[in-house]
């Protein structure tokens, strides 16, 4: 609620806490963890066991913010909350001993926080771990429309029982309310002029253009889904960031955008943002923005056949190996940040390659062209990821990114039609309530 304090919860293993307060070890490492939940659900309570696992494996204190959630608090509320928590950490901790981490929406938010810190010249953390990050809210990559039997996310996306809070009235429903009360709901002439970030979502279905009038996501309006702090895939460059670890479920709906974002960060000039999202007067800056930052070091792990945010299923064997791998990367990132030799990693320890998931303190395989590209099976065995030329996400032209996937929309609209029939009576009651309140 307005006026409430922003809170966060510390998670630390009791044995590490006792050693820290007794001075047996410095206990400096801190992980700032942002939970997922599509920006409208999820909590620290829900993620507590995962936070405990991270704290134990990394021998760190984990700080998890209770950030504000949509629809009551849409973009940029949650982003501002998590950014504020990081700024607080900088008052008590050196950035080189901080690791950022997040899953799904939390992973996307972490990426946006890093870009803000980079652009504003604020000290960057030692590294970041992105678990199945959600980075394209326009759903433009091929995997979102494919059959994904290994994932638990519905193939048509999320649908909800209607309430006064969600969904907001569509443009047609707003007109119906205005007709009923005999006036407009808002005098837009008094509002300041602004440029919409992106076009209204329009898809071609059976050869005909169709505008999506219903709001798709609780976090942001349809016109804002191309905003680069909402969908980081539209950032001109993801270079200049601290080392990233990106874990992707090979069977999840969002895998393509995660694989793409990893390659975009490691090779910004090869994966540029399309000029359609910039005004003509700004397009001359697009190349300069793309080339400004050096490539980011990225460790990409694609876990064969796993679902979205697989570490949530912490009782499974693959999740055990994922926690080990994240601790290995986190320990490495902290060490490298404090030694300040990140730029030489491509030539570091060239003889070392990994065939199995390591533990905290083990060396990482060497980076090749700013990346460690790995495919991992259920038993933690590592093989090389397929070449970029064989990966659908890497072959998608930038002009297609941000264009809503028509197959996905058809699935969503078909499911929505059934949902609307199911709750038709309730929807009418809500519409009457809105008319009464506006009268």
TrEMBL record:
- Asked if Coiled coil is a keyword of the record, the answer is no
Q: Which InterPro entries match?
A: AB_hydrolase_3 (IPR013094), AB_hydrolase_fold (IPR029058), GDXG_lipolytic_enzyme (IPR050300)
**Species of the source:** Blumeria graminis f. sp. tritici 96224
Q: Which GO terms describe its molecular function?
A: hydrolase activity
What Pfam families does UniProt report for this protein, alphabetically? Abhydrolase_3
Q: Where is the Alpha/beta hydrolase fold-3 domain?
A: 31-145, 214-266
Q: Does the keyword Hydrolase apply?
A: yes
| Database matches in PANTHER family | AB HYDROLASE SUPERFAMILY PROTEIN C4A8.06C (PTHR48081)
Name of the protein this chain belongs to: Bgt-4825
Which keywords does the record carry?
Hydrolase
Source taxon at top rank: Eukaryota
